Amino acid sequence: MTSVPPSVTVLGTGAMGTALAGALLDRGHRTTVWNRTAAKAQPLVERGALLAPTPGAAIAASPLVIACVLDYDALYSALDGSTDLLAGRAFVNLTSGSAEQARAARDRFDGHGADYLDGAIMTTPPGVGSREVMVLYSGPRTAFDAHHAALEALGDPVHLGEDPGLAALYDSALLGLMWSTMTGWLHGTALVGAEGTPATAFTPVAIRWLATVNSFLTRYASQVDAGRYPGDDATIDVQIAAIGHLLHAAAERGLDNALPELLKSTMERARAAGHGSSSFAGVIEVLRAEVA
Ligand code: FVH
Question: What confidence score (pLDDT) does residue 291 get?
Answer without folding.
Answer: 64
